[in-house]
Design a protein that fits this description.
alpha/beta, Metallo-beta-lactamase, Chain A, six-stranded mixed β-sheet, 13 strands, 24% strand, globular, binds zinc ion
Length: 276
């Protein structure tokens, strides 16, 4: 798995197995904190081994889930020593549908054979602060990708761990576009030096505002384009003519998976706007 160092004792792991999903590790003199636990326990164990090499066994004190989607929580149980933190509604979502979803996923993916559901121990609604070693983390509700999405901001090094609020194409199919816009603006206004995306490469200070602009523009463009398809009385398959590049984003990231995510966004909007 790729490991990038973004600041002193802050590392980002990028999955080889699932859509470049990320996991961030903060090492402190008082134990480690992990943000998101990856899709597969085998990769979560790689992260844990790295931490334990540095700080010894059972040194992970906190694990934060940026939202309740499978690819960010299925490694949770690997970090047995950690207290798990998430948004109130993230815990509710996992407690409600998590077990059944994991059972279904297991039947399709052998890599999940030893995954077990681990629910958050600590939840919050709007904002909370966490102090561990010399690190001060601000956890904020930043909905849009999902209603339970949160961001984690390391205040001193200005590292914003965005979960899927930031990824190479905004994914709106289980969220809310208005909230997405507001949360992107909130991230920009913090003026972070680094943004750890939920999937893909870390964004650097000089890139953040441009990416936010591109994503806000993308959301406007797809709404406009889908509306005109509907106005022309065309069926959903006409959406396939709206390629991602004509909406201002590249088709290359995440090994091309962004093209599928883009089409799913279009179909989602079409259904929302038509009620079909
Ligand atoms: Zn994700």
């Amino acid at each position: 798995m790729r490991r990038d160092r973004v600041a002193e004792d802050i590392f980002v792991f990028v999955s080889d197995l699932h859509a470049q999903v990320t996991c961030t590790v903060l090492l402190t003199g008082d134990g480690a904190l992990v943000v998101d636990s990856l899709a597969f326990p085998s990769e979560a164990r790689e992260v844990k081994a790295f931490i334990e090499e540095q700080l010894g066994p059972n040194s992970v004190r906190y694990l934060i889930n940026t939202h309740s989607h499978a690819d960010h929580v299925y490694g949770n149980s690997v970090f047995a020593s950690a207290e798990v933190i998430a948004h109130d509604t993230g815990r509710q979502a996992l407690a409600g549908r998590g077990e059944a979803q994991l059972m279904r996923a297991r039947r399709q993916l052998p890599g999940l054979a030893d995954a077990t559901l681990r629910l958050p121990d600590i939840t919050f609604h709007k904002e909370m602060h966490l102090h561990i070693g010399h690190r001060h983390l601000q956890l904020m509700h930043t909905p849009g990708h999902t209603s339970d999405s949160i961001s984690v901001y390391e205040v001193n090094e200005r590292v914003w761990m965005a979960g899927d609020l930031a990824m190479p194409v905004p994914q709106i199919t289980s969220g809310n576009v208005e909230q997405f816009r507001a949360s992107l603006e909130q991230m920009r206004q913090a003026e972070p030096d680094f943004v750890v995306q939920g999937h893909g490469d870390v964004l650097l200070r000089g890139e953040v505002s441009d990416v936010v602009d591109a994503h806000l523009a993308y959301l406007d463009i797809i709404e406009r384009r889908v509306r005109s398809v509907i106005k022309a009385g065309k069926p959903p398959r006409a959406l396939q003519a709206i390629d991602i590049e004509s909406c201002g984003l590249s088709r290359i990231p995440l090994d091309g998976a962004v093209v599928r995510l883009h089409l799913e966004n279009l179909i989602y909007l079409y259904r929302q706007m038509t009620g079909l």
